[in-house]
Design a protein that fits this description.
It comes from Novosphingobium album. It contains six helices and 14 strands. It is an alpha/beta fold. Helix 3 crosses helix 5. It is globular, with a radius of gyration of 17 Å.
């Protein structure tokens, strides 16, 4: 796909979580350092950023922060990695972005550190950049339909209207799209944010009410790797693809 350049040259990687569902593998290491298909999950994300041409990354740390910060420091690829330190207090996804905002341009990519995915015809950062419109959007979410969400057993997260605006799943119903953990975020989304720890859902809800939360469907595969049991099938899928 040709056309628009990348929407940003910087990504925030959310890596401060406790990784409770991944125990016992996270008893002595943070979840982003758990290995899948021969390398840590955060390296899967960092390598994808480098391949896409995203030059800078900001990584937030909390649980076993020294190990994660040390890993990022010694990487020979994508050397421009800055740390947003949450050792004193875990700020959750929304609070983490707000704390890191002074290090982030407007807009920026944001992705979970435990994301594993295979690109479609174009990498996900190009997919998002092609659809990004800062005049209409506070955030643009990369969503995946159920058939391309490997290991996923949930009921989905969102609906998309014909213009790409996002609506939440209604209780008791199945929604066709799952959030991949990858998005473009405008600083406008972060305005008037709560202090301390809070979920990005707080900001998304406001953006939905204002008609400014959008989504785009991922054309490749996405893997939910939330538990130790998901690692082997993910590796088998990656070998097969």
């Amino acid at each position: 796909m040709t056309g628009k350049p990348l929407a940003s040259d910087t990504a925030m990687i959310l890596a401060a979580g406790l990784g409770k569902r991944m125990r016992p593998l996270t008893a002595a290491q943070p979840k982003p350092l758990v290995r899948v298909a021969g390398k840590s999950m955060i390296d899967h994300a960092l390598d994808k950023l480098e391949s896409a041409g995203v030059a800078h990354a900001v990584v937030n740390v909390h649980y076993l922060a020294d190990a994660l910060e040390g890993h990022c420091t010694v990487r020979s690829r994508l050397p421009d990695i800055r740390i947003s330190d949450e050792r004193d207090q875990l700020l959750e996804t929304g609070g983490g972005m707000v704390k890191a905002a002074p290090m982030l341009p407007d807009p920026f990519f944001c992705l979970n550190s435990d994301n594993i995915w295979l690109d479609g015809p174009n990498d996900v950062f190009k997919e998002l950049s092609q659809a990004w419109d800062p005049e209409r959007m506070d955030a643009l979410l990369l969503l995946v339909p159920h058939p391309r969400a490997m290991n996923y057993r949930g009921e989905g997260d969102f609906h998309l209207d014909p213009q790409g605006r996002v609506a939440r799943r209604k209780r008791g119903y199945v929604a066709p799209f799952i959030f991949t953990g990858i998005q473009i975020v405008s600083h406008r989304l972060l305005r008037d944010a709560p202090e301390g720890p809070f979920s990005t859902n707080v900001l998304w809800n406001r953006a939905i009410e204002e008609g400014r939360l959008y989504g785009v469907s991922h054309m490749g595969l996405w893997f939910e790797v939330g538990t130790p049991g998901a690692i082997k099938p993910t590796e088998e899928w990656m070998t097969r693809a």
